[in-house]
Specification:
The chain is α/β, with parallel strands linked by helices. Helices cover 44% and strands 18% of the residues. Strands 1, 2, 3, 4, 5, 6, 7, 8 and 9 form a nine-stranded mixed sheet that branches. The longest helix is centred in the first third of the chain and has 24 residues.
């Protein structure tokens, strides 16, 4: 019996050795971070900045692959099925939480199909309009929207996109349904807002700051608790009379379920280093955001954030009755 137990222990050790050795020497090759949205969008911009900084820390190239479609669920689904070796990761935004309710038939279990690496950043939103829209401030916009609810158009980048979620929150806060116009991505939505084909839009500062600064769109409010240094003249929604419209588009880094703890911990440490990178901090500031603090760039913080956000958005989405399937 003793010989059998010893042989069994030896066999298990042999089977586990490649995993342990792999975790100790990780990474040995290029790492791919899947962004579940089109190139050039806000999440893509954030990811590329962080990937470049993590590459320096890890000593291996971290590349970005854009796998857009279905509100981010196609890219997330691909990572959920990937090898749990730390070489395929996912950087997703708040849609990771809302997709759990928006899509009633997901190909993966949102909370249990991934390992958590850490939070990356929380990007404020802006409520903006075409530059020749009549109202001068948010109070006037609300009055205008209520008086013209059948004709005021609200652009978004598609069901489940950050702009869609913020738009739903805005309409919920003013208790007035408006005409929503979904697009296949942030780029086309912004193009039509710039061209005056749609009236208003709610989107991340990473996508609107330069347009606001350039005067090509009209800014009504930011959805953060305080005004932003990059947009000092734009009031908060609380200042402007809509305190319930506070939302940030947080981004998190994930790995497939089963990825060894040693690897997720190494990735978390690398993420923390990347978020302290001077170039990352400077570029984030230009986009109206800032890196997550070290305490948030951890597996525990990201898991807690996802759980809380799923619970927060579930009743809002159900009340709106807008589903993606």
């Amino acid at each position: 019996m003793r010989r059998f137990v010893a042989a069994l222990a030896a066999a298990v050790a042999v089977m586990l050795y490649p995993v342990a050795a792999g975790a100790q020497t990780y990474p040995e090759r290029t790492i791919t971070v899947v962004v579940p949205f089109a190139a050039g969008g806000p999440t893509d911009t954030v990811t590329r900045l962080v990937a470049e900084a993590m590459s320096k820390d890890l000593g291996q190239q971290v590349i970005v692959e854009n796998v857009g479609g279905a509100g981010g669920t196609l890219g997330a689904g691909r990572v959920a099925k990937a090898e749990s070796d730390g070489y395929t990761l996912l950087l997703h935004h708040i849609g990771m939480a809302t997709s759990a309710t928006l899509y009633r038939k997901l190909a993966y279990d949102t909370l249990n199909a991934f390992e958590y690496v850490g939070l990356v950043t929380e990007v404020p939103m802006t409520i903006v309009g075409r530059k020749d829209l009549e109202p001068a401030d948010l109070k006037g916009l609300v009055e205008y929207a209520k008086a013209n609810k059948d004709s005021v158009t609200v652009a978004n980048a598609g069901i489940g996109a950050a702009s869609h979620l913020c738009g739903m929150l805005f309409m919920s806060a003013i208790k007035t349904p408006l005409v929503t116009v979904p697009y296949k991505g942030t780029g086309p939505a912004m193009t039509d807002l710039l061209g005056g084909q749609v009236d208003i839009m709610c989107d991340q500062t990473t996508n609107t700051t330069k347009q606001i600064q350039g005067g090509t769109i009209k800014a009504y409010a930011v959805t953060s608790p305080e005004r932003l240094d990059v947009l000092p003249d734009v009031p908060t929604t609380t200042e402007a009379g809509l305190p319930d419209v506070q939302v940030s588009i947080w981004h998190g880094l994930y790995a497939p379920k089963g990825t060894p703890a040693e690897i997720t911990e190494r990735l978390s440490k690398s993420l923390q280093v990347a978020l302290k990178d001077e170039n990352v901090a400077a570029r984030f500031a230009e986009l109206g955001t800032r890196p997550s603090p070290q305490a948030d760039a951890t597996p525990a913080a990201l898991k807690a954030k996802l759980e809380n956000e799923i619970a927060r958005w579930k009743p809002i989405i159900e009340a709106a009755g807008q589903y993606a399937d």
